Amino acid sequence: MALTFDQRDGVIWYDGKLVPWAEAKLHVLSHGLHYASCVFEGERAYGGEIFKCTAHSERLKQSARVLDFEIPYSVAEIDAAKRLVLEKNGLSDAYVRPVAWRGSEMMGVSAQHNTIHLAIATWEWPSYFDPAERLKGIRIALAEYRRPDPRTAPVLAKAAGLYMICTISKHKAERQGYADAMMLDWQGRVAECTGANIFFVKDGKLHTPIADCFLDGITRQTVIELARRRGIEVIERRIMPEELSSFSECFITGTAAEVTPVSEIAEWRFTPGALTQQLMDDYTAEVTPKGKKAAA
Predict the structure, then answer these.
(1) Per-residue DSSP letters for the chain?
(2) Which residues form the domain of 172?
(3) Residue 295 maps to a domain
(4) pTM of structure
C-alpha cells in the first residue's frame, strides 16, 4: 500500500522553515479548515525546473487577496522556497503544492487577525490519467453541479472551497466508470472539468469557453499561446452543450492533466486527432528544460 500523504519521507517548507514531512501539521480548529479561507497552487517541475514558477506564485498571492488576506512572503520568496524544498527532497520531475490559510487564533466567520500560514510540499506524481487511456482519449461524464455565478463566489481565485463541488462531481463520475466530469456554468453553458480547462476542435480552429466564472488556467494560457504560434485560430466564446456534436476533437488542460485528449463526454463522441497530438507535443517541448532539449 502506498504511503498516505501525511506519512511520506522528506521535508515540507512551513512558515519559513523546512520541517520533517510528518511534522507539518496544523490545528483542527484552523479557520482555513472550517471556513475555507485557504488558497493553493498546483505546479509541476520538469528536469528540476518548475514550469511557470513565478506566474503560479503571483496567482497564489492574488487568490489570497481575493479571499481578503495577504500572504506574508513576496513572490520572489515563494519562488525561492519552492525551489529549495524541491532540491531538499531530491526531486527533479515532481508536483509542487504551495498552500496558504488562516490559522486558529479566532474561530468564527470573522477572523481578520488570524495568522496567515504558508506551506510548500513536493512529491513525485506521474500522469494524472492512465497512460494507455490518455492516448486514446479519456471518457468524461456531465456533472450535476455547475460553476457558480461570479456574483456569488470568488470564482477567479484558486480557492479550496470552490473545489467542493468538483470533488463530489469527480467521485460520482469515477463511480460510473468515467475519468472526470465536465461542468456547465450557472447559465447552462460549457465551463470546464473538475480540475482542468477544456478545448474543442472544429474545422482546424480551437474553441474554448470564456474563463469568467472559472479559473483561467496557466496551462490553458500556455496552450492558447502555443496554438497561436502555429497560426491556429483560437476562439474564446460561449459554448452550449448542444453544440458538442459539431466538434471533431476535444482535450483538457491543466498542471496535472497537461494536455489530455477526450474521446467522450456523456452522449457526445470525439476522435483524438492531429491538432490535439500537435499541441500535446508542443506542450511537452515547452515544459522540457532548455538544456534537456538541446541534448535530445
Answers:
(1) -PPPTTS-SSEEEETTEEEEGGG----TT-HHHHH--EEE--EEEETTEETTHHHHHHHHHHHHHHTT---SS-HHHHHHHHHHHHHHTT-SSEEEEEEEEE-SS--SS--TTSPEEEEEEEE----SS-HHHHHH-EEEEE-SS-BPPTTTS-TTS-BGGGGHHHHHHHHHHHHTT-SEEEEEBTTS-EEEESSSEEEEEETTEEEEE--SSS---HHHHHHHHHHHHTT--EEEE---GGGGGG-SEEEEEETTTEEEEEEEETTEE----HHHHHHHHHHHHHHS-HHHHHH-
(2) 131-287
(3) no
(4) 0.93
Asked whether residue 227 is assigned to any structural domain, the reply reads: yes
CATH at residue 54: 3.30.470.10
Domain end, chosen from 78, 107, 123, is at 123
My answer on whether 180 and 242 are in the same domain is yes
pLDDT in tens, 188-233: 999 999 999 999 999 999 999 999 999 999 999 999 999 999 999 9
Instruction: Give the residue numbers annotated as catalytic, written as ranges.
Output: 158
